[in-house]
Predict the structure.
Amino acid sequence: MSTMPTSSARMSLNEHLITNAKVEDNLRHLMLDIARAAKYIQRAIRTTEAGLAGTVNQFGEEQIKLDVLSNECIARHLEESRQVASYASEEEDMVIELNSKAPYSVAFDPLDGSSLVDVNFAIGSIFGIYKGKEMIGKTPREQVAALYVIYGPRTLLVYAASNGTHEFILNDVGEFTLLRENLGIADEAKTFSPGNSSAVSDNAGYKKVLDTWLAEKPNMRYSGCMVSDMHHVLSKGQGVFANVGGKKYPEGKLRLLFECGPFAHLFAQAGGSTSNGTASILDVKITSVDQRTPIVAGSTKEVTKVCEMLKAS
Ligand code: AHM
Ligand code: MG
């Protein structure tokens, strides 16, 4: 007789939030509403419900782009949850207020890596959740939960709510069920993921880091979608990811509020590190919605080594 659990025997995200994370009901409802939005997004990606940039549908109407559709879908679900005082999205210039008496605020990148849709690479959505109405002036350490959804050959959801980092898979009946609990990141990295690599021409420290990786590490794993590249580290349990500054993007390309902040919580809960070169991303003060930050993330010893190299030159 098989001992493999059937998918219906796997723990649901809802059950995990109740029994493992023990998050309060309002936060649980919010996270489940976010997960629900992600299901619509994965369907839109799969069915070309939305167009690629500039495409028209069968009636000759210009189709809404996937990142715009994802933004609207998430905004609608956040509003419907009744749990959100304000939100900030990569697709909007400012913080949007919903219900000032609601308990949480949410920062999100609705479709990270959307420029990779045409090449059919995995892409994702990223969320950071804070208590109260304000996010500006806080640090990512104050997040009560963070999660991302990766839309690849399979749709996965990974969350942390100060209780470890856990991975769920979307099953055939549309439920996220537990795949792996307590993901961990080892201290040493074998694989490397070099974002904003054109910065090597004007950032001598980054050039040194890349030369060292190429000489010493067996494998590069870089897709160009932060969600996928960070998920690689979490899934394989080791690795290092960087996106640091050069002339064109002095602070690197990634945003603190929607991209680096949520991953800082997810990686810390898995025993890994994230740094802006001098301090933990968890402690970088959020001063504006579109603030960028350099990031080195992953296996702790490697993150420390890379930051030393960046500082030395
Ligand atoms: P987005 O505008 O789709 O959110 O893109 C940001 C993306 C990240 O996912 C990725 O890490 C980065 O841009 C890749 O850019 P590069 O490889 O040029 O650093
Ligand atoms: Mg992004």
Observations:
- The chain has a mean pLDDT of 93.
- Residues 90, 109, 112, 226, 259 surround magnesium ion (ligand 2) (CB under 6 Å).
